[in-house]
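Discrete fold record:
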Amino acid sequence: MASAIGNEKAALEIQTDFGSLDAFLWLFVDGKSAQSHWVSTEEVSPKTDTSERMNKELANRGFKFVGATGAGCTGQHFGGGFV
């Protein structure tokens, strides 16, 4: 429960600084959707340099339980669908 409250406080600070959490997160990809061109699931990386940077910045801003694999900034599409 304390982590959820702390995450909300951190999100509100980001909202004050950047206008929204959405605007802050899009900064990590220069406002453009990241697209991968993988052919098979073996090529899918659970984390990227971008997700590592995002995770570090979120942690520095007080977020808890955010990991580079859960940052969700990899365009994991292949074979016509999502991974």
Notes: The chain has a mean pLDDT of 80. The radius of gyration is 14 Å.
